[in-house]
Specification:
It is a single chain. The chain is built from ten helices and ten strands. The chain is of the alpha/beta class. The strands form two sheets. A six-stranded mixed sheet has the order 1-2-3-5-7-10, with helices on both faces. Helix 3 runs antiparallel to helix 10 and helix 5 packs antiparallel against helix 10. The longest helix is centred in the middle third of the chain and has 20 residues. It is globular and about 45 Å long.
């Protein structure tokens, strides 16, 4: 697709790989490439596997863009929230293959797809916004509330607790763990299972089940775009 995002299609499964430096940072260019990849997956009517580089799914937003100023930070967060909203309503199943660390926006992506496979190892997953002086945005709060286990919502959003892969399963960031060398094999196995569903019924049920959440997310994104408390 681009140097930042790679797209391959095999046996009805589209594998989308984020490839943007050491932290796999999420910039405007990365989100543009990701949206183009999702456009292609829709055209191909494919089940999607979304993954990163070995050892890192994503460390979150590109800090070089976030630190340019409030206007620039708000614009990037709006693009990112809109992207995760798209993931939540995507008409075909999406599997998150978490290839290592998933922090901040990387973790929000895991909270927005249909099924999440992570890998065993000394990796960190979670929402560190409060720990680094960022007031959590409205959309982020609702994404976390929608998917995290209730006992872990407060710990994650307000206390900025960071989890091991095993803890991330309990919290709700991941659904299962495998050995690193098994990640894509397991993701493809799951994808072929999803292909056996009625994909029309999957899409319609997803929208019906998430109708209230998606409306709330739209309102939250609009509220955030007007005023984001991003600094301490």
């Amino acid at each position: 697709m681009t140097d930042l995002v790679n797209y391959t299609l095999n046996d009805g499964v589209a594998t989308i790989v984020i490839n943007n430096g050491k932290a796999n940072a999420l910039s405007h260019d990365v989100f543009e490439a990701l949206n183009k990849a999702l456009d292609q997956a829709e055209q191909d009517k494919a089940v999607v596997i979304l993954t990163g580089q070995p050892g890192i799914f994503s460390g979150g937003y590109d800090l070089k863009e976030m630190q340019k100023g409030m206007k620039e930070a708000t614009a990037l967060v709006t693009v990112g929230s809109t992207f995760t909203r798209r993931l939540a309503a995507f008409p075909f199943p999406i599997i998150g293959a978490c290839s290592g660390h998933a922090i901040a926006k990387g973790a929000f992506i895991m909270l927005s797809v249909d099924y999440r496979v992570g890998i065993e190892g000394s990796f960190k997953l979670g929402l560190n916004e409060v720990a680094i002086g960022m007031t959590m945005h409205h959309a982020g709060i609702e994404i976390a509330r929608h998917r995290l286990a209730p006992a872990h919502f407060y710990r994650s959003v307000i206390n900025a607790e960071i989890y091991s892969p095993e803890g991330a399963v309990a919290a709700g960031y991941l659904d299962e763990l495998v050995a690193p060398e098994q990640l894509l094999n397991r993701a493809n196995e799951l994808a072929q299972g999803f292909r056996k569903l009625s994909l029309k019924a999957h899409a319609q049920t997803k929208l019906k089940a998430k109708a209230g959440y998606l409306e709330l997310l739209d309102r939250s994104i609009e509220k955030d775009s007007e005023s984001l408390g991003l600094t301490a």
